[in-house]
Each structure stands twice: as C-alpha cells, then as structure tokens.
Amino acid sequence: MGLFRSEFCFLDRQDPPSVEEQVRAYRTVLRAFPGRKVVVRTLDSGADKPLHFLTAPEEENPALGVRGLRTAGRWPQLLEDQLDAIAQAAAAEQAHVWVMAPMVSTVGETQWFVERCHAHGLDVAGVMVEVPSAALLADPILARAAFASIGTNDLTQYTMAADRLLGSLAELSDPWQPAVLRLVAATCDGGAQQGRPVGVCGEAASHPALAWCSSGSG
Question: What is the rounded distance in angstroms from the CA atom of residue 174 to the CA atom of residue 131?
Fold first, then answer.
C-alpha cells in the first residue's frame, strides 16, 4: 500500500492542471502498483502548501483557513476535475484505488465527499482525521466513510494549539502528548464500532509503540 499526495501536480503553477494532465500523472503512479492498494489523497493546499491560484493572501492564520477539503467549498470544480482524473486513471490501470480527503471536520463534509466520489465511480472513499472534531466524531464519520487515516502531525498541532513549524514549541508538537493519544484512541474506537480500517500517517507512523499506547488512551 502507498499514499499518493496528489498536490505535487498542483504546486509551482499559475493555473490548475487540466484533467488530462492529471490523468497522465496519476497513471504513472498507479501503473507501478498493479494489484496493490494505492490511497490517493485529494488536493491538500493551504497553510504550509500555498498555491498561487488558490491561497487567499488575506488569511491571517492559514492553518485555520481554507485548506484541504475546504478549498472544494470555494472552488468545487477543482475537486470534480480531480475525482474525474483519478477515476479515469484507476479504470486504465490495475491498482486498487482508494481516495481520501484531507482536513475533514464534520459529518456533513464526510457525507458530501463520499457522495462526490461515488458519483465518479470511486467506491472506496475515506477521510483524514487531522482535527479534534473529526476524532471525536469518528463513529458517525466512519458510518459514512470507508476508512480513515490519522494525520498525526496536524492532529497534534490543532490539539495542542502549537504551530508544528515552530521549533520553540517542539515539546508541545509531540504525538506522545496524552491529549493527542486520547484522540487517536477515540478515532480507533470509532473505526472498531463501524468495522472500518483506521491507518496513520505523519511522524508518529515511525513509532510502533504509539499504537499500543494509543489503545490505552495515554
């Protein structure tokens, strides 16, 4: 299994890539994984990944602004084009394609994203759990989404109110913080209740001991 961070197709551009450009890029990746699962994360822009044609310069705190799936609320065609391109690439190759959205905060956002994926023939649609609200709502969210992936870097940042790019706050930007572990455990509990898989990405994924600690809520 691999995670495909699709924003590389969008960075350093003045305009978004066309559907055809995206199809070519996605097929190049999917072709390398025949018969294997590839999770494609939809565009995760904003904050530390600004885009010339999306990021609003007037945002005073981009980490709390229009980023991740929230961009689709303002520029819905971007998501529609991306899902179209992913679906075309998946149909042309042999990889098992799962799709997930970043920065999901509510059950309503989850339902909407899953519906948009299904409309494009993408049947396995999941979400990133990066904000505390998503962790606390993991049960109803995963009643709708097929899977979740815990983005521990952002989840730690938002839980501890500590900019993850600020070295002076490194002690707070630690996924071993008990509050973060409790939210990880809450997400896993929601997955267990719904029979949905829950994965992890970010720095914490390199610490197998965290999986055991999280199951005990810290």
Answer: 15
